[in-house]
Amino acid sequence: MRPLPMNPLDPSPAEAAARPGWMRDLGLRAGWDWCADPRFGLALLAGCAFWLALFWRDMPVPVPGLAALASLILLQPVLEELLFRGLLQGWLRMRAWGRRQFGGFTLANGVVALLFTALHFISHPPLWAASVLLPSLLYGYFRDRHDSVLPAIALHVFYNAGYFLLPLVWKG
């Protein structure tokens, strides 16, 4: 009897054993291999295209103070990704149903992206809150693809930095 092929979403047994429990649970896997992923590069370009569309349409973008800017660009993305993609998505991926894939996205990713988007309706206008869904799916996609929350954090920081810093540079 042949062994079943490994699920690409699961870390190798040696990888999983090498990380302490809390690091594994949060998706904190060392390594920068995701930086060379061509799909990650496309995700970065998609962010740039979104920013250009905003400026082309002359959409108003809030310009917060320095402390709020640091929170929006660094603190919130790191904490949100550790909680949503790291802890919650990682926990849901441990269930067989959470690893099921639809169009390249796991069900765990879909559930977490919907929850993340729903929570944005508390403090954002409906259209802006709904616009969080696609980036959220991307963050989760890279968390699954690389068994690490680090690409999700990097992408979230990049998207927020462009969204909040470009108006300062653009309008000077």
Describe the model.
This protein is mainly α and about 170 residues long. The chain has one domain (about 45-170). Helix content is about 65%, strand content about 0%. The radius of gyration is 17 Å and the shape is globular. It starts with 12 loop residues before the first helix and ends with a helix. Mean pLDDT is about 85; it is low at about 1-5.
Question: Any chance you could write out the topology, listing elements then pairs?
Answer:
Blueprint: H1 13-18, H2 21-26, H3 38-56, H4 66-93, E1 101-102, E2 105-106, H5 107-120, H6 126-130, H7 133-146, H8 150-171
Antiparallel strand pairs: 1-2
Helix pairs in contact: 3-8, 4-5, 4-7, 4-8, 5-7, 7-8
Entry keywords:
172 residues; mainly alpha; two-stranded antiparallel sheet
Write a brief caption for the model.
The chain is mostly helical and 172 residues long. It has helices spanning 13-18, 21-26, 38-56, 66-93, 107-120, 126-130, 133-146, 150-171; strands at residues 101-102, 105-106.
